[in-house]
């Protein structure tokens, strides 16, 4: 039996390994010239950059994955402090890390309650493809007073914390879930337990090291790769099965097909009667990324979140399809060398969440420059930029076929959570499966890794 995996992202390679472990021959077809997908990397002179994920959370999921494939878990370093949040409200600047919590009693209660949800989710929900009836679980229902499903993350956090800076500290994770604290359900507060209860980690040598490790294991077990091979057609036979996927004038046959490329783009390659309706789906934000190679002082933590002015203003700009106002613009900064002192150069990545819209390079550079100047002023850090690369929604679209240039896929709103996310198996095509951030469980490297575990088990059960 042969499986064709389209896309060599973390989800694609993880699925390939799990299928190979079951004795299935696997070919991975990748559009780009390297593995990793959004987690790929690039180098410039002495500077190296992880292009995508920077948070390594929920280590037990990675432990389970590597146990499944019979390999040692990839080594990590704990990040301390976990993050710093800087809040600027009309010129009044506050700064806080997880080691300087002002509402300690409320924080302890919050962690205790979110730990319950986190453990319940791992035990009953995250390791399987959910159905609507799973929400009727007695353990979930009995705790609805603590985790009201219809309450958003912002209002949930306000139940515990009185200070604005603590509310923001517990709300920033919503950005990496593809939304805002005003529309992300309170059940995702479990991510905050992962961050503040379990800890934040960094894969040795960055996510580029993690990707390289997956790729080397794939090659070791005989998985074949074809790079520089963008799939541009999916051929269906008269038995409601995928017969082959096409790259230019070649068509690659298989018994099973697993899609790890953009779900909506893959859908567009199918005959019309097999496509889904995406018109009512809510996209997650895109992002402008500034990759900086610098010299000089960068005396700041690995992860920094900066919130300027009214962050609701920034989230509204995302919803309305506008560029953010620099005075009310929030952004994130990753500085890996704060954790990994062995890195040769100093690299910073600035991430500004924006609506998935077309933006010209000049406007993107202005927003990145505004965030850099703001960061330098607020942190009193002094560095000189020796290298800069700007990455925009258009780049996400070009490189990953990302629908409208979204960085994260579909937002984790209530009606796009669990069983309401796109299915892991095509509703009509008998041998077409999906893995990655669009389907269950959702966005983020731990969730994508779980997605590979779930879909490979489903395939095994259906063989």
UniProtKB/TrEMBL annotation:
Q: Which domain of life is it from?
A: Archaea
**InterPro entries per the UniProt record, alphabetical:** Amino_oxidase, Carotenoid/retinoid_OxRdtase, FAD/NAD-bd_sf
Q: Which SUPFAM superfamilies match?
A: FAD/NAD(P)-binding domain (SSF51905)
Q: Which GO terms describe its biological process?
A: carotenoid biosynthetic process
What the entry lists under Pfam families is as follows: Amino_oxidase
Q: Where is the Amine oxidase domain?
A: 10-459
Report if keyword Oxidoreductase is assigned: yes
- Under the GO molecular function aspect, what terms does this record hold? oxidoreductase activity
This protein's pathway reads:
Carotenoid biosynthesis
Specify the protein name.
Phytoene desaturase
């Amino acid at each position: 039996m042969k499986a064709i995996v389209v896309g060599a992202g973390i989800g694609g390679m993880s699925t390939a390994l799990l299928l190979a472990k079951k004795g299935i021959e696997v070919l991975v077809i990748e559009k780009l010239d390297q593995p990793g997908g959004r987690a790929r990397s690039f180098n410039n002179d002495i500077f190296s950059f992880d292009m995508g994920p920077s948070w390594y959370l929920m280590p037990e999921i990675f432990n389970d994955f590597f146990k499944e494939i019979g390999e040692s878990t990839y080594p990590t370093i704990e990040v301390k402090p976990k993050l710093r949040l800087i809040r600027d409200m009309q010129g009044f600047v506050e700064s806080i890390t997880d080691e300087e919590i002002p509402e300690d009693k409320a924080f302890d209660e919050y962690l205790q309650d979110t730990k319950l949800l986190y453990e319940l989710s791992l035990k009953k929900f995250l390791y399987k493809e959910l159905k609507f009836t799973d929400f009727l679980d007695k353990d979930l229902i009995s705790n609805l007073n603590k985790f009201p499903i219809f309450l958003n993350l912002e209002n949930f956090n306000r139940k515990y914390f009185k200070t604005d800076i603590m509310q923001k500290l517990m709300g920033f994770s919503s950005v990496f879930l593809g939304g805002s604290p005003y529309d992300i359900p309170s059940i995702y507060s479990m991510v905050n337990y992962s961050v503040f209860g379990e800890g934040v980690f960094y894969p040795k040598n960055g996510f580029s090291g993690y990707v390289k490790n997956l790729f080397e294991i794939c090659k070791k077990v005989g998985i074949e790769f074809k790079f520089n091979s963008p799939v541009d057609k999916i051929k269906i036979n008269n038995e409601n099965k995928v017969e082959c996927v096409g790259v230019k004038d070649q068509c690659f046959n298989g018994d099973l097909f697993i899609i790890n490329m953009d779900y909506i783009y893959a859908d567009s390659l199918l005959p019309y009667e097999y496509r889904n309706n995406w018109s009512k789906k809510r996209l997650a934000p895109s992002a402008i990324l500034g990759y900086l190679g610098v010299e000089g002082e960068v005396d700041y933590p690995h992860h920094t979140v900066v919130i300027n002015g009214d962050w609701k203003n920034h989230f509204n700009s995302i919803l309305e399809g506008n560029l953010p106002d620099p005075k009310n613009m929030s952004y994130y900064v990753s500085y890996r060398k704060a954790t990994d002192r062995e890195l040769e150069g100093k690299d910073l990545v600035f991430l500004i969440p924006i609506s998935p819209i077309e933006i010209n390079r000049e406007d993107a550079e202005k927003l990145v420059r505004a965030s850099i100047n703001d960061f330098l002023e607020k942190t009193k850090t002094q560095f000189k930029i020796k290298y800069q690369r700007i990455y925009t929604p258009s780049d996400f679209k070009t490189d990953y076929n990302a629908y409208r240039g979204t960085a994260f896929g579909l937002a984790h709103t209530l009606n796009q959570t669990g069983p309401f996310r796109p299915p892991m198996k095509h509703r009509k095509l008998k041998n077409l499966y999906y893995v990655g951030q669009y389907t269950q469980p959702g966005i983020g490297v731990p969730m994508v890794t779980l997605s590979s575990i779930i879909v490979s088990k489903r395939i095994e059960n259906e063989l």
